[in-house]
Design goal:
The chain has 523 residues and is α+β, with helices and mostly antiparallel strands. Helix content is 30%, strand content 21%.
């Protein structure tokens, strides 16, 4: 073989070109990068599909998730009958995030009818990329699980990930099994224990109880944006339906009870159960328990729920399901750990940064973490063991995301008042429920606030409703609901705005570094 013969390899999506006049012969493949993923939700699946699109057969990926099962020759999601309550929430993906996904993933996710654009352009959704897109978590999970099997031939294991006794040549463990990650906890000696100290008030961790109300919408998605942005009691994220999220006081949260035949049942809020309409009642299809506020004539909460529905142009008959959850945050000391001489572990998604969802950055932050790690691996994989230094950039990005997104979310939980003094949302709601009440003044204040938001957003999104329509929505509210909305304040977009964390792009391989890129010359 003469000196012009070159071995040709493939790194990432780009095939390296030989020197002019050289003869091309196949490169002997190195051992593929071996990757395990704990957790097959949107972040775990997106990470796996992105990495396969970048490295092809130079990476071997295996994903574990206990919420899957085998059905014939396929792996599918377990349903309610198998004890798994699928997530029905609608989430918003910023265009800096969705545009960074591989083109084939974007094509699979954003098919007609599966997404909508109701939110305006902003720093993380610049005009050059496009507007934010609303999409259902369930659709992301279904589409990417099919893609992992049909396009990328990823190995899927329908069982929880269990830390092995020996790592046996595994190069990467990506941990994406949620905020209560059992995998992360089993490796606490490597990652440390999450702390809630920084997100506490007077020594007690600050949590919020939220009611999630899934509805069938009656008005165009965009029309509801100024109503949502004008207050912090209700958040409506729509996609031809969607979710109305309602923040509660401790007293209101005490009413979130499911009644069985023999009394209260630990159901809604504990097991992720959804209460669905059954006549005039709402019943858990798993425990057959009844949502107490919907049948309690003395309930203080139920009229407030109905008022929130009315605000967005829907009624009790339009409610598809009700569930409840608690929101809080914790601080991680690090996101990257060397588990063995040749094995590194990484925290992704909620296992890394579980956020309060009000600012709409939970899944965006998770996907940014997945994209960062995938790009890092594509750039650094050379067919031999990694070093800790290989992941300095990725760890730095994870720390940036933690600071940026948790400080943003914390500010929405403890919003500054007119004098700049932090004030919890629960205190604001409780004050709003107390007298005195001046209905005319409250209507005027909220209406002027909505009109100001409408004017500000007008050139950054599609058409909005008429002023008269917004006045009708506001004027239909009970006076207590009006005061809560006024007291809760408008979204503090300026305080939580600003520059966003930018994720590096994948780089095609070049011939300028032949040895380190896997391209070798022989004589």
């Amino acid at each position: 073989m003469d000196e012009k013969t070159v071995l040709l390899g493939k790194v990432g999506p780009t095939v390296m070109l030989p020197r002019q006049g050289a003869q091309v012969v196949p490169l002997r493949r190195s051992t593929p990068l071996r990757v395990d993923v704990a957790g097959g939700g949107p972040v775990g699946l997106a990470f796996a599909c992105t990495l396969k699109s970048m490295l092809g057969d130079q990476v071997s990926v295996r994903i574990h998730d206990r919420r899957w099962m085998r059905k014939g020759d396929r792996v599918v999601w377990r349903g309610a009958a198998e004890g798994n309550n699928r997530r029905e929430q609608v989430v918003t993906l910023q265009s800096n995030v969705w545009a960074a996904l591989p083109s084939e993933v974007r094509q699979r996710l954003f098919t007609p009818g599966k997404f909508s654009e109701m939110w305006p352009l902003g720093p993380d959704s610049p005009e050059s990329k496009g507007r934010p897109r609303n999409i259902k978590i369930r659709w992301i999970e279904d589409a990417l699980l099919d893609m992992a099997q049909d396009v990328y031939n990823i190995e899927l294991v329908p069982a929880a990930y269990v830390k092995p006794d020996r790592w046996d040549g595994l190069h990467v463990l990506a941990i994406a099994d949620g905020a209560k990650s059992a995998t992360r906890d089993s490796l606490s000696s490597h990652f440390g224990t999450p702390s809630r100290e920084l997100f506490s008030v007077d020594g007690s961790p600050l949590d919020e109880r939220v009611l999630g109300i899934r509805v069938t919408a009656k008005v165009p998605d965009e029309h509801t944006v100024p109503l949502t942005v004008a207050q912090n009691r209700f958040l409506f994220n729509s996609l031809g339906g969607g979710f109305i999220n309602m923040r509660l006081t401790a007293e209101e949260a005490s009413e979130i009870v499911a009644l069985g035949e023999n009394g209260p049942i630990s159901c809604i809020g504990k097991f992720g159960c959804t209460m669905r309409p059954s006549g005039t009642r709402f019943v858990c299809d798993r425990h057959r328990a009844v949502f107490k506020p919907s049948v309690d004539k003395l309930s203080y909460l139920w009229p407030r729920i109905l008022d929130g529905l009315r605000f967005f142009g829907v009624g009790a008959a339009d409610v598809v399901g009700i569930n409840s959850f608690t929101l809080g945050m914790q601080q991680m000391s690090k996101f990257t750990a060397q588990l063995a001489p040749s094995t590194f572990g990484f925290l992704l998604g909620d296992a890394a940064n579980s956020l309060h969802f009000w600012p709409g950055r939970g899944l965006n932050t998770g996907l940014k973490s997945a994209l960062s790690l995938a790009v890092n691996l594509q750039k650094r994989w050379r067919g031999s063991a990694f070093r800790a230094a290989d992941f300095a950039q990725h760890e730095g990005i994870m720390q940036q995301l933690q600071y940026r997104e948790k400080s943003r979310a914390w500010t929405t939980m403890l919003m500054p008042d007119s004098e700049g003094v932090p004030r919890g949302i629960e205190d604001r709601i409780r004050t709003g429920l107390e007298g005195p009440f001046d209905r005319a003044a409250l209507v005027k204040t909220l209406f002027e606030r909505v009109l100001g938001i409408k004017k500000r957003l007008g050139d950054r999104m599609g058409s909005l409703a008429t002023d008269e329509w917004y006045y009708g929505r506001i004027n239909a509210m009970d006076v207590r609901t009006l005061k809560v909305m006024v007291e809760s304040g408008a979204w503090i977009t300026r305080e939580i705005g600003g520059e966003e964390v930018v994720i590096p792009s994948a780089e095609p391989a070049t011939v300028q570094e032949p040895v380190r890129r896997g391209l070798s010359l022989v004589s």
